[in-house]
């Protein structure tokens, strides 16, 4: 044991040796106190008991039917109610999902710079005043040659079926790219427009075009290709330019009819599905080449806490061990980025704190 005695003359360090029984005295001349104060410092060799924090064992709950399915009651429509169904189609990576999210006012469809991020048809609803509009966001449509090479024919069929169901079709074109990036005389554009009763042409990404006058010849050329084109809009979904004009046009096109969804509903995707898509979005944003297309996501834990927070456990499934290393990254840098991104997206969407736990697993293992 060491004893420290603080007095007016300084600090006395006295240590007693168990062998000699003597004490050594060290004096610091600077005065630091008026009255003696004794401070005892425990011997480092002496074992002291420290309190250990108890770890709380959390029972992970599986997602129940309430979060795995979407259910609602058909509302009573207001007087003079109007409705419209709209398909959003076009080539991959022209900003269809960004456009849908901007019109509706919140994220209902995942977004990334890569083609074919949207793999299924996504329904979004926009209700304002006496009008309800239901949108179908579809996978990007590729020419027949590229469909067979990439096994994407099922995605094209999803897009075509959505067009047939819709009363109005929106064909989205990337205004920042020259028309020669569109293959085979825009045959595909003609196919898309022919399947819709009425078509509106939307030139997106005009914020990337310095001189908008250069778009006029493009519009004239597209009007010759796109059948039943009633209106042309130049917008930037990313910068929220021209969106209000497009929304006003859609409201004018709505016909008398009952509403299908309650006015507060903006998507028919179950919350588990949205969580899956938010993780997929992070994967597409962070990883390159063919890796994101080989990754699937499965939600296996959906555990609400008493304070309103939500814990979500998900498996990020990859085909082999090599790809598992890529998805995890050095010191887990890649999967950590995906987790933080998806967690932020879900926290904003669900209006509560989400704690996301990702587990990368390979089919091989």
Automatic annotation (TrEMBL):
Keywords in alphabetical order: GTP-binding, Nucleotide-binding, RNA-binding
InterPro entries, A to Z: G_ERA_dom (IPR030388), GTP-bd (IPR006073), GTPase_Era-like (IPR005662), KH_dom-like_a/b (IPR015946), KH_dom_type_2 (IPR004044), KH_sf_prok-type (IPR009019), P-loop_NTPase (IPR027417), Small_GTP-bd (IPR005225)
Chain positions covered by the region annotation G2: 116-120
Biological process annotations from GO: ribosomal small subunit assembly
Domain Era-type G: 82-257
Coiled coil: none
Region called G1, residue ranges: 90-97
Region described as G3: 137-140
Residue segments, region G4: 204-207
Stretches the record annotates as G5: 235-237
Nucleotide-binding recorded as keyword: yes
Family listed: Belongs to the TRAFAC class TrmE-Era-EngA-EngB-Septin-like GTPase superfamily. Era GTPase family.
Alphabetized HAMAP family for the sequence: GTPase_Era
PANTHER family: GTPASE ERA, GTPASE ERA, MITOCHONDRIAL
Annotated NCBIfam families: era (TIGR00436), PRK00089.1 (NF000908), small_GTP (TIGR00231)
Protein name: Mitochondrial translation GTPase Era
